[in-house]
């Protein structure tokens, strides 16, 4: 019975608590309960059919949005060479 309870708690920890779309919805800055108050970045890469995800290592929303925009623009410029990063 305790094992079932742990599985349910684990699933709840991965849920997104806050989500902010940036770059016209091409990327997202979000938080999950598991990472505490630290903001994360996620962007879908069409050619690879994968999400690129990275911790922004900040707890401040305005800083996270700024870092997320910079990272998103940097990734957009490197799309052809992203295959090396994703593998």
Q: What's the overall geometry?
A: globular
Question: What integer value in Å does the Rg equal?
Answer: 15 Å
The description of the largest β-sheet is: 4 strands, antiparallel
Discrete helix count: 3
Q: How do the strands of the widest beta sheet line up side by side?
A: 1-2-3-4
Word description of this protein:
The structure is a single chain. The protein has 87 residues and is an alpha+beta fold. The protein has one domain (2-86). Helices cover 39% and strands 29% of the residues. The protein has 3 helices and 4 strands. It has a 4-stranded antiparallel β-sheet with strand order 1-2-3-4, covered by helices on one side. It is globular and about 30 Å long.
Give the topology, please.
Blueprint: H1 2-13, E1 16-22, E2 27-32, E3 40-45, E4 50-55, H2 61-77, H3 82-86
Antiparallel strand pairs: 1-2, 2-3, 3-4
């Amino acid at each position: 019975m305790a094992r079932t309870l742990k599985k349910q708690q684990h699933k709840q920890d991965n849920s997104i608590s806050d989500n902010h779309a940036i770059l016209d919805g091409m990327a997202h800055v979000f938080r999950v309960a598991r990472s505490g108050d630290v903001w994360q970045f996620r962007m879908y890469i069409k050619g690879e059919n994968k999400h690129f995800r990275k911790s922004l290592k900040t707890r401040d929303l305005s800083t996270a949005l700024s870092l997320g925009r910079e990272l998103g623009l940097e990734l957009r410029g490197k799309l052809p060479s992203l295959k090396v990063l994703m593998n």
